[in-house]
Structures are given as C-alpha cells and as structure tokens.
Amino acid sequence: MNNSTVNILDLPDEILLNIFKTLNNMDLLYSLFGINKRLDNMVCDINLTRSINLMMLPSNRAIDWRTSTIRDRIFMQLLPRIHNNVECFTVQGCFFLRVLLAGNYPNLHESPFIHTSFLHQITDLAVRISDKITNESMETLLIGIYKNIFTILTNLKYLDLNVNDTYAFGKSLLKGLPSNICCSSSIVHLRIKMNNFEDFLSLMDGRLSQLHTFIIDLDYIYDTCYAALRFNRRRFNMRYLSSSVLNIAKTLRRLKCFSLYVYHSTAEFDSHIVPVLRRMSNLEQLTLSLRIRERTSFIDGTHLHNYILNSMPHLHSFFFDIVTERVRFDQHLRPSPGDILSIFTERGYNANCYVNYDHHDLGRCHVYSLPFNMERIRPITGSFPGGRFMNIRVLHMFDIVQSFEHEFFAQISLSFPVLNHLTLSNTISKNVTPLQQILKPENASSIIEFSHLVELGCFDVHIDYVEQFLSNLNTRLPCLSKLHVKYEHLVTVTENFTRNATRINCAKLKHIDFVYNVKIMRSKNFYLYFPLLHHHKSHYS
C-alpha cells in the first residue's frame, strides 16, 4: 500500500471554508493571511470577517520585530481589504487611530470605539470598565465618556455601560447635561451605573422616550439639592419629587423591564422610590435590590403590593432582594420570619426571609424572592437559612450578635457553590473553637471546601475565623490567591509562618493586604511560606 501525503492546499475551497468556519477567525487571519493569493481570498471571505476582535493583538509596547510585522500586516494590508465586510469591531484603545486610518467600515453597526465618520452607524454599544477607578482624574474621564455617549451617538438603541461596581462615584455623572442636548433618544435598552437619584431623574426627564428596558445601579438615593436643607426636608422633598415624577411620565410610558440596585442603605424608599415605581404602569418585569432604613416597620408583601405592585396591572415577573434595617420594635411585638413569609405567600410570591434583633431591640429583616436569579445578594448574617444561589460569586457575611460556627460555613459552601470572593465581619469568638472542631471524631468528613474561592477578606474578625479558613484541618481553599487579614492574626495562626496545617491554604497566595498599616518582618520563613507572593511593598500594606 502506497503512503501519500495530502497538503492543506490540495483540499478544495469548499472543504477549506468549512474547516475555517470552525476556527477562530482572528487566528486564521494572523497565521494565514499573506501566504498566497488563494488563502488570502478564503480567509477574507465575508462570512469570516463580519466580526473582528483585535483585543489579543500585541500592544504597541511590544516592540520586537515579529509582533511589529503582525501589526503592520493587520493594519496596512488586511483591514483595507476587508473593511467593507466588518459589522462588529472590538479593539484596544492604543490601536484606535490605526483602525480608523485603515478603512471606512460602511457596514459597521457595533463598536467599542467612537469616531465621527461612523457615529450614526453605531446602534449597539457595550462599554466594559473592569479596572478599579482609584482617583478623581479617572472619575472625571469616566464622566466625560458618559456625557459624550449621550450627546454624540445619535442612533443608539442598545447601550450597556458596565462599570466596576466596587467603586462609588463621588459626584453626579450627568449634572449640568440639559435634556435638549441629549441626542440618544432612540435608546431602547439601557444598562448603566450612576451616583445617585439625581442622575436617575436626569435620564427620566423625557429624553429617553423609547426606553423599553432600564437596568440601573446607584450608589446612593438622596437628593444633593436638598441634602443641605434638612431643616425643611419634608416640605422641600414633596415639592421637588412631585415635579420630577410628573416629568418622567413620557420616559416611563414604553418601559417594560426595570431593574434597580442601590448599594448603600437609603431612608428615601417611600418618598423617592415608591412614587417613581407607581408611574411604571406598563411594567412587565421588575427587579429591586435595596437596603432600607429609618422605617417603623419591615417591608413586607402587603406594603409592596399596596404601594407598588397594585399600580402595575401587566406585571408578570417580580424579583427582589430587600433588607429593612434599624427598625425599633417592642420586645413583645417582634415579627417572626414566619409572620413575614405568610404575607408573601398569601400574595402569591415565593420567597424566603430571616430576621435579626440586636441588644437594643433594633430589627433587621432580609427577604428575597425564589428562585434567586440575581448575581449579587445583600450581606447575610448568621441567621441566613441557606438555599441554592447558583449565580452569586461575591458574598459579605457579618454579625454583631452571634458567632459563625463550622456548620454554618459548611452550609454557606453548599448554598454558594461558585463563590469566588468572600468577606467576613464578625468579632464574636466561636462557641466551638477551631481546636475543639479538629478534635471531633467526625472531623475528617466535615472539612469544608470552597472550590472556587479566590479572594478572602477578614477585615474585622475574631482570630477564630482566620483559623477556620486557613487551617486545612477545617477548610480547603484550593484556589485562594488573595487575602485581606490583620498581620498579627496571620502570624499567630501560622505560628510565625512555620505551621504545616495552614501552609497548604497559603501556598497559592499571590497577594496579601494587611488591614492596618503595620511594619512587617519579612523573614526567611515568610518568603518560604508564601512562594508565589509578589514581593512588593504595596502588597503588604
């Protein structure tokens, strides 16, 4: 039998195209464009070049001749040839000018960058800002981006401004932007993170009359204009809100889906949020995630139904995650979780809740809809009843009344199976010390594992919880790479960086942020104990 070798160029065009369609189009362009005329024609086929993603292209800082040759081939030969095919473009900011100079892109409809030659063509825009905004100049730049998008892009229908939600803006983002200069009136879908309620009202003044879906994250709900007028707060509040609510009717007329997340607690639920929600009469889906304070009672099913949902005859989906906190009750009149849940059940809502009362008779109620489909959940306490939360990756646990025991952490690991960032706040020592837990006969089978946990914050905790998580006799953390902890706690629990029981969970740490600025003795044991740690001053302060 004769052996034969088939070269890729021996295959017919139809077979090659079918093969190419299964591969990453940019890998094809990087590797095959420029070899010969036949392959050039094939890899530049319109079906392979409608969407171009240059995010993996080596940046301008890479100056070796190989990467420079690749860049020149892309911008000087490839893009001028395929620019008529491109409908969607993703590119690093450093290549912005070269992309613009390479072609006209007459069919471009989606792009993460802006240029006047094709602004009117962009209907879908998604902005991802995952980096932390750490100073005022970065915030000012972001404010400029927000304003330019709303004033320059004239034909937007889908706008997703996804900003790192760990940062709280220090100022209003749209303050001083009159409605008559906002040209993005065609927006149908809007997702945006903003500073406060004033920003929200700025968008709801009639400029977005086509809005169908509105997803908004706010840092605060308060009015900057009346914050200084607390002496006459109620009178000013009613006058200001009445005029604002009347102005938003045009925007809310077409709104079908609304989602509101407010990071900080608010005392303005009844005065600010409720009047706006009652105007959303055509709403079909509502999502609320709130922390509410300064009320005389917990938010329950009756209150939500009577004051909000009763005004939404078309509503078919209601998702909520609501905490009411610092509500004072007489010791003999405290509502139980059963009391609150029964009201939701009577109204036809599937929900769960738990209630805490501190030593000053102040109550906290956390109620949430089931199944829980949000990506964030409000901070939980030791009374949390468990469940399955398949989308939650970031969790804050705190308590000022009761300790967190080993069994509770076991429940948390099962309830949040994809958790990758956990923050603890609890200064109450455990009832069963970590040493007692280790000595239990059944301990070997009760070791907890957080399979996906990457970051652990022990900011304000009793040392028992540092022991709970760092000792592999209690907990396994196979992916832990970042730790926030008190230096003295870490020294004690690791026995001055020599203890074997904590070595495994510490072995993959790449960053350690100490809670207080302390002088650190970086001994030989310290370096050996954290072999992957980036030995830089900023990681130890």
Describe this structure in words.
The protein is an alpha/beta fold and 541 residues long. 30% of the residues lie in helices and 19% in strands. It contains 19 helices and 18 strands. A nine-stranded mixed sheet has the order 3-4-5-6-7-8-9-11-10. Strands 12-13-15-17-18 form a five-stranded parallel sheet. Strand 10 and strand 11 form a beta hairpin. It is globular, with a radius of gyration of 28 Å. The C terminus is likely disordered.
Q: Describe the global form.
A: globular
Task: Let me know the largest β-sheet.
Answer: 9 strands, mixed
Low-confidence stretches: 224-240, 536-541
- First and last CA, distance: 72 Å
Cα-atom Rg, whole angstroms?
Answer: 28 Å
Mean pLDDT: 82
The number of distinct helices, counting runs of at least 4 residues, comes to 19
Measured as a percent range, the helix fraction is 25-40%
Give me the count of strands.
18
SS-derived structural category: alpha/beta
- What share of residues are in beta strands? 15-25%
Order of strands, main sheet, comes to: 3-4-5-6-7-8-9-11-10
